[in-house]
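Encode chain A's predicted structure.
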Amino acid sequence: MNPLFYDVFEALPRQGPGLTDSTLKALHLIPDLPEDPMILDIGCGNGTQTMDLLRALHGGRIVATDNHLPFVKMLSDRGRDFFETGRLTPIIADMAKLPFGERSFDLLWAEGSIFILGMTGGLKAFYPFLKQGGYFALTEIAWLKDNPPEKVVEFFAQDCNEVGTPDQYCAIAREKGYEVIDRFIVPANGWWDEYYTPMEKVIQEKRSTHTDPVDVDILDMLQLEIDICRECQEYYGYVFLVLKKV
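Encoded structure for chain A:
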């Protein structure tokens, strides 16, 4: 991965669409989480949602994983108090090769990261790490209207293994051994407040110092994603799924 790509994302409050309110809403939809749950945050980025969970829970431990060392260091720094009390363990790990035993966690959390394996692949790959009756909360891009513009379909086809509707994702979850507890769409400002708006500012700043054609292509690609969202956001959004292993 080109270093410029990481430079942009390291400068953002979040590495994907999301809101603290949505994180907490999903957490509160879980009906019977243990008092001291073991939680795995998969693809945690700089840990914005990780910190939201730690502050909202009175007990429990979160193991937060990402394959990019600077993100893990960022979370270690911002969560130092939780780290020192043993409630936070940030580690470097590839989500396709997570180093945990079966049935290790009461709750899996994956905001904006399951797209790397795809909904089908991710639900299957992470299933063994969840205790029987445990929960999985995740977000993924979903179609909200029929017949999205071709440029939107083509753009997401480049990076996403699969993009479906919320109903299709729920069907996949049931097929993979989960009960669907609830679902909701992350509000539209979840794409902008802490993600696209600061990203657009970083892109403009980088253009003055990154004039190499490869770098320019990366910045153009990121700007294109923002422009597509600005023009076509009614057709897609992030669905938050709360699932239970049954």
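The mean pLDDT is 96.
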